[in-house]
Specification:
Organism: Loxia leucoptera
Radius of gyration: 31 Å
CATH topology of the largest domain: Deoxyribonuclease I, Chain A
CATH architecture of the largest domain: 4-Layer Sandwich
Shape: globular
Distance between the termini: 78 Å
Subcellular location: Mitochondrion matrix
Number of helices: 16
Oligomer: single chain
Protein name: 2',5'-phosphodiesterase 12
GO molecular function: metal ion binding; poly(A)-specific ribonuclease activity
Family: Belongs to the CCR4/nocturin family.
Helix content: 10-25%
CATH class of the largest domain: Alpha Beta
Number of domains: 3
């Protein structure tokens, strides 16, 4: 046997080709080490692209590519020799015909010959487009990276977590010594032993079909810090360790306190003076919130006061890792809005029907009658139309029993204590809209209506939702004095029940506590299996009021298990 050299690992030629873009891109490294990146029309015949690669390769380094026109015309021998033969062979070894368009020619596994060099074509290999760690890491709290990828999915990526080496006694710096931890999951919860050390994540993108792309690494900006110890939700997690069965739905409604409102001077000094300033910071609260929500093993989560960046960079990536898909609806003119999450293996999304109350009142024929009644009270009408409140409505279908559908509504009503009349109008719009979806578009599907209604159980709003109607002589029509009276008789066709009853409070701040949040359910179709108890009064008041170092919001999450009747 002759001394044949072992086959050289073939170089890669990476092709990116997607239908939505007219050009495909091609990247490879020439034998002399120079990188090439070319864009070619997807429709162009292969032959033209190969000819272009040949002249491109011939340029090489140095002056070869810059020959004068005259020299090129005379075809100096040196120039001729430098243009290599370029061909493309398909996986089975046959040459790809030159008239085949680029999009069809450059298949995964094909082999490109440039002179003596060989390149294996990788078409649309998995690639990471973003890899980020949260700014704040707390021991005992899950660290959820933000992973964005192309031709790959986070659940198929490989994760390796490293921690800094502790500096040895003599003043050496920790430097670049990293020790791999045993963790190989997407979510990593650092132990107390890692306090004071930074973390590093290495992620390799995968597509679930045994294809992997180049890995990326990201280091935490700071070290793991000590967590707060016990939180208000720890005891509640004892009831929600497991996801409930397919015949049941665990629903959560929670106003998570927008950063927009938590970090103002007014909030720090007037609203929440009892709360340690660091515990109002968004990075700190997000750590608590992600642990709290993940631990509820919920099927449906309706959140209010969700900052857009919190949804995109923090909550959606974290809850995605725990099996939940998120939908976001911003409030016009504001940086916060509503989010609805649903468990992917239990539900699929059929349709979305979000509205802004003011816009719907003005433009949707559905609300014409209400709009005309409201026009008789210009002062109230103006207030209603100024509000940016929105209603998020999602229609879900069970993955195991397609006949089971759900209309999930989520809202955050006007907040002002004297705005009871405004809230009644907002509810009227909401109920008409939900009726259109759950009676007309999807006849007889059950409704779950969650939110921060800014209304106590003694209010007209609560009574309107639960009784099905409101009389024109109800005192809430004059909630802001006679001059803003607007009296109407309104009704809706649903039989709704507050699944968690009427707790003493769901909002507990220095100057107020009361029940403002509800999960209303369709009594005809759903029943309450269990209500997860709220934290004890003692837990809520340990640090005077909410938020606190052990509770991330001024509201308390409502959680209940429902089942189909």
């Amino acid at each position: 046997g002759g001394g044949g050299r072992p086959p050289v690992a073939m170089e890669r030629a990476v092709v990116r080709c997607v239908p939505s873009e007219p050009k495909l891109s091609l990247r490879f490294v020439l034998p002399d080490g120079s990188a090439r990146h070319m864009q070619r029309d997807q429709e162009e015949p292969l032959g033209r692209a190969l000819a272009r690669i040949a002249t491109n390769a011939a340029k090489g380094h140095g002056k070869a590519g810059k020959k004068s026109k005259k020299a090129r015309a005379e075809g100096s021998a040196e120039g001729e020799a430098a243009v290599p033969a370029v061909r493309l062979f398909s996986r089975d070894g046959t040459a790809v015909a030159e008239e085949v368009p680029n999009a069809a020619a450059w298949q995964d596994g094909a082999v490109l010959h440039i002179g003596d060099a060989r390149y294996r074509v990788e078409r649309n290999p998995p690639a990471l487009t973003e890899l980020r760690l949260p700014r704040s890491l707390l021991a005992g709290f899950p660290v959820c990276p933000k992973v964005s990828a192309e031709f790959a999915a986070p659940q198929h990526c490989l994760f390796r977590w490293f921690r800094e080496q502790r500096p040895a006694g003599g003043g050496e710096e920790a430097g670049e010594a990293w020790v791999e931890t045993a963790a190989a999951e997407r979510v990593f919860t650092p132990s107390n032993a890692l306090v004071g050390l930074r973390l590093k994540l290495r992620c390799t993108p995968g597509d679930g079909e045994q294809r992997y792309g180049p890995a990326l690494e990201v280091e935490s900006s700071g070290p793991v810090e000590a967590g707060p110890g016990a939180c208000t939700f720890d005891a509640r997690h004892l009831y929600t360790k497991k996801v409930c069965g397919h015949g049941s739905v665990r629903a959560v409604s929670y106003n998570i306190l927008a950063d927009t409102y938590a970090q103002t001077e007014f909030s720090r000094t007037v609203l929440y003076p009892y709360c340690a300033p660091y515990a109002l910071e968004i990075d700190y609260r997000q750590n608590l919130l992600k642990k709290e929500l993940a631990g509820y093993s919920a099927d449906l989560i309706c959140l209010q006061e969700v900052d857009k960046s919190v949804f995109v960079d923090s909550l959606a990536p974290a809850l995605d890792a725990f099996g939940l898909e998120g939908l976001f609806r911003i409030k016009e003119k504001q940086h916060e809005g509503l989010a609805t999450f649903y468990r992917r293996d239990k539900f699929s999304l059929l349709s979305q029907h979000d509205i802004a109350f003011s816009e719907a009142l003005l433009s949707e024929p559905l609300h014409k009658e209400l709009s005309e009644q409201l026009a008789k009270y210009p002062l109230v009408q103006e207030k209603v139309l100024q509000r940016s409140s929105v209603l998020q409505v999602s229609v879900l279908q069970s993955t195991t029993d397609p006949s089971r559908k759900l209309c999930v509504a989520n809202t955050h009503l006007y907040w002002h204590p004297k705005g009871g009349n405004i809230r009644l109008i907002q509810i009227a719009v909401a109920m008409s809209h939900i009726k259109h979806i759950a009676c007309d578009l999807y006849p007889r599907i059950p409704v779950i209506f969650c939110g921060d209604f800014n209304s106590t159980p003694s209010s007209g709003a609560y009574s309107f939702i639960s009784s099905g109607g409101i009389a024109e002589d109800h005192e809430d029509w004059v909630s802001n004095g006679e001059e803003e009276r607007c009296s109407m008789t309104l009704s809706h066709p649903f039989k709704l029940l507050s699944a968690c009853g009427e707790p003493a409070y769901t909002n507990y701040v220095g100057g107020f506590h009361g029940c403002l949040d509800y999960i209303f359910i369709d009594r005809n179709a759903l029943e309450v299996e269990q209500v997860i108890p709220l934290p004890s009064h003692e837990e809520i008041t340990t640090h005077q009021a909410l938020p606190s170092v052990s509770h991330p919001s001024d509201h308390i999450a409502l959680i209940c298990d429902l089942k189909w009747k």
